[in-house]
Description:
By secondary structure, chain A is an alpha/beta fold. In chain A, 36% of the residues lie in helices and 27% in strands.
Amino acid sequence: xxxxxxxxxxxxxxxxxxxxxxxxxxxxxxxxxxxxxxxxxxxxxxxxxxxxxxxxxxxxxxxxxxxxxxxxxxxxxxxxxxxxxxxxxxxxxxxxxxxxxxxxxxxxxxxxxxxxxxxxxxxxxxxxxxxxxxxxxxxxxxxxxxxxxxxxxxxxxxxxxxxxxxxxxxxxxxxxxxxxxxxxxxxxxxxxxxxxxxxxxxxxxxxxxxxxxxxxxxxxxxxxxxxxxxxxxxxxxxxxxxxxxxxxxxxxx
Amino acid sequence: xxxxxxxxxxxxxxxxxxxxxxxxxxxxxxxxxxxxxxxxxxxxxxxxxxxxxxxxxxxxxxxxxxxxxxxxxxxxxxxxxxxxxxxxxxxxxxxxxxxxxxxxxxxxxxxxxxxxxxxxxxxxxxxxxxxxxxxxxxxxxxxxxxxxxxxxxxxxxxxxxxxxxxxxxxxxxxxxxxxxxxxxxxxxxxxxxxxxxxxxxxxxxxxxxxxxxxxxxxxxxxxxxxxxxxxxxxxxxxxxxxxxxxxxxxxxxxxxxxxxxxxxxxxxxxxxxxxxxxxxxxxxxxxxxxxxxxxxxxxxxxxxxxxxxxxxxxxxxxxxxxxxxxxxxxxxxxxxxxxxxxxxxxxxxxxxxxxxxxxxxxxxxxxxxxxxxxxxxxxxxxxxxxxxxxxxxxxxxxxxxxxxxxxxxxxxxxxxxxxxxxxxxxxxxxxxxxxxxxxxxxxxxxxxxxxxxxxxxxxxxxxxxxxxxxxxxxxxxxxxxxxxxxxxxxxxxxxxxxxxxxxxxxxxxxxxxxxxxxxxxxxxxxxxxxxxxxxxxxxxxxxxxxxxxxxxxxxxxxxxxxxxxxxxxxxxxxxxxxxxxxxxxxxxxxxxxxxxxxxxxxxxxxxxxxxxxxxxxxxxxxxxxxxxxxxxxxxxxxxxxxxxxxxxxxxxxxxxxxxxxxxxxxxxxxxxxxxxxxxxxxxxxxxxxxxxxxxxxxxxxxxxxxxxxxxxxxxxxxxxxxxxxxxxxxxxxxxxxxxxxxxxxxxxxxxxxxxxxxxxxxxxxxxxxxxxxxxxxxxxx
Lengths: 253, 781
C-alpha cells in the first residue's frame, strides 16, 4: 500500500532580506512528508532546516511556491487562518522548550488542548496519562516551568505538543539543550508518540536523534540533496547506525 | 561608561520615553500655568497699583450739585483731614447721567432688562489725576465725534462684552439718541466704571447730568493699617450719617483676581493628580525594565559596573526626559499664555503682559524633577540587590512561592476568559498601578460629568450657587404690586419681595438680603442653624463667622448708619457677595434698623426651572403690567453664554474630559506597550500554539479590564462623593462653604461605563501591534 502524503511542497521558496541583500534559504523545493512517518531533517548549520520546518508547519509564510497539508493549500492562509490550522493539526517541540512561564505545567498543557477545542475533563484525563507516560510526577503538575529541570520541561513540552493528538508533531532540535540521558528520554517519548500513529517531523544535527526516524532527509543549500529510508526504529540496531553514518558521510556531513 | 549606559537606555526605551515626556508636559504645563497665573497676576496688580498710584481706601458718593451736596463732600474731607492715618487724598468729580443702553434704534419696546437697560454712567474728562490715574493701554487714532475711553470692566460688565475698541455705542440720554465711539481702553484699580471723554461731550453730559459723582481716593501714612483706617473712617461717616460706598486696595485686587485664584487652584490640583500618574508611570516602567533586562544587568555587574552606576544611569535617563518635557511645556505655556490672558480678561479687567515668571518656572521644575528623582530612586532600589550569577540565570531564585491564580484545570469559562483572569490577577504590582491610574481617571471623569451636568446641562445650578439665588426671574416694577397676582400665573412656583442693604459689623460692610419670611423662600439658605424669623435675628456668612469667631446663638452688634442693634445669630449662610461677608434678615428686622425695604423688586421661581415656561410667564407678565415692568430672565443670561463663570465652568468641564482622555491614552499606551514587550515571548509561543491575533488582543483587553473597572469604580465613587467638597474648597475664597450642586449615582456609573468603554477601545487599538508579532520570529529571536 503506497504511503499517504501528509505535507507536500511545490516550488517552495523562502528568502530573507538582510541589509538589502536577499538570502535564498529554500530554493524551489518539491518535497513530500508522509503520514505516520518519523521524518528527520538533517543538514549542516545554516542549511535552512529550521526554516523548512516552520514553512511546512504554517508557522512562517513561504516567499514563493505552495505548501499543501493533505489536500489543502495553506500558502494562501492569513495569519489567523494559519493559527487555527496549527492549533488543530500541529504540535510543536522546540529546542528552547518555550513553555509559558506564567502558567503551571498543567495549565501549559491544558491551554493547548482547550485551544484546539478539546473537552476539559477529557483533556485533564489525557494530560495525566501522558504525564505518567513521560515520567512527570503529579508533584510537578502544578509547578511553574522555571521550577523544572531542562529534561522535565522538554517532556512537558512534548505532552503539550501531543495533547490534542495533532496530525503531525514538529520538533526543532528537541534534544539540543539536553544532556544525553534527558535526550534519550525525550527521544523515547517521540518514538512512542510515532508508534501511536502520529507523524513526526524533526530537525536535528545529532546522529543519535536522527536514527530514531524511519526516513532521513538531508538538506543542503536550500534543497534536498539526498534521503535515506531507515525503516522502523529498533533499539540497539547497529546496522541502522552504520547505514545512517554512511549516508551522512556521502552527503558530506 | 555612564554616558554610554544612558545612551543605550534611551535607544531601548525611546517609545516609552515619548509617552513619558507627553505626560510630563501635561503635568508641568498645568502646574506652571496655574502658578504663573497666580504669581503673574499678583505681581501684575502690585505693579499696576504702583503705576496708577492706587489708593489704599476709596470712597464713593453721589450728590446733587447743590449746597447740601457740597457740604457732604466737605464733611467727608474734614473727616479725612482729621484722621491721623490719612497721608493725602484726591477728590475726583464726574457727571452721573441716566442713559438707556440700546442694542439698536428700534429696541425701545423691549422689556428685557439687558436689552434696554437704564443705567447711570459717569462721564469724566481725562485729566491729570495723581491717585488712581487711568493708564490707556489700547487706543485707536483719529478724530471721532464723542469718543469714549472705557475700562475692560465697563466693556465686560456693563456692555456684556458685546462691544470693543472702535465700535459705535448707541445710548439714549434724556430722549435723545447719541452715538459714541469707543476709542480707547484704560486700566485703573479703584475706578473702573467711569467713562473718559472729550471736552465737547462733557459739556453735553453736564447738561444731562442727574448727579455729581464723587470719588475720593485716600493714601494712608506709611505703616498705617489699611483695615483699621478703613473701619475708623467708616465709623466716622456712619456717625455723621454720611452715606458713602467704600473699598480697600486689597479688596479691589481680590475683586480682580478671585477667578484667577480659582482657575489656578483647579490647574494646580489637577497638575498634582497628573504628577501622581507620572510617578506611577516611572515606577511601572523602571521596575519592568529591571525585570526585563535582568540578564543584561547581571552581565553589566559581572563586567564590573557598580549598582550605583547602573542606578544613576536609569535615574538620569528619566531626569533628562522629565527636564526636556518640562522645558517643552514651558515653551508651550508661554506660546499659549497670551491667548489665555485674553480669555481671562473678562475676569481681571486688566491686560497682563504674560512675562516670564521665574518663581513658577523654578517651583514647577523643582516639583517635576523632584518627583521624578524620588520615584526613580525608589524604583531602582532593586538594582543594588541584583546578584550577577542569579541575574544571568534570568533572575531565578532557588525557591519560588508564586501562586497560580485561576488554574485552567479548575476554572470554568472560555479559554480566553480564563487566561485573561490569570493575567489580570497574576501581577500584583501591575494591578496596583493600573488601579491607581484608573482611579485618577475615574475621579476626573466623574468630576467632569458632575461639572458638565451642573454647568452644561443645568447651568442654573451653578449660577444659583454662585449668585446665592434660587430665582429664575427678577421683576422690577414701577409701582408696588401684589405678589399674589403673580403667584396665580401658571408655572410660577414662588414669588417674594427682595431687597438688600449693606449693614456693618465691626466696621466691615455686610451685604444683607431682606425678605418677609425666609422659610417660604425656596432653596437652602443656611448651611448651619436656621433662618432668622424675628426682628432681632440674623443669619451671617459662614466665612464671616469664621473670620470673626461668631457662633450660633451669639449676640452681635449690627450698625446701619447711626442705628445700632444687637442681633442673635440663628445660623450661617454661604454667600459669594462680599466674599462671604453677608447676612440675611427679615423685613421686620430691617425696620428695626431704620430701613424700609423696597418692595417693587420681586423674585420669582419657576417650576422645574424650565426656561420655556419662564418665557411664557414673561409674556403673561408683559400683558398684565405693560410699561410698568422690566424683567431679568436669569435662564436666558445663563444659556446665552454671557455669564463668565458658567463659561469657565464649561471650559473646566471640557478640559477635564480632555485631560482624563489624555491620561487614559498616554498611560494606557505605556502600559500596553510595556505589557506587550514584557510578554512578547509568551505571545509568540501562544501564536505558535495556534492563538489568533484577535484572541490575544481580546485576552489582553479582558485581562486589563478588571483592574481598570476597579480603579474607575474607586475613582468615580470618590469623585462623586467628594465633588461638592472639592468645589467648596475651590470656591471657598468666594465665600462658598457648602456646595450643594446635584450629584447622583448615575454620574459615577456613567464615569465607570464611559471610562471602561474608552479604555477598552484604546487598549484594543494599541494592541494591534500584537497582530504584527510573528510566532516564528519570536521563537527565533
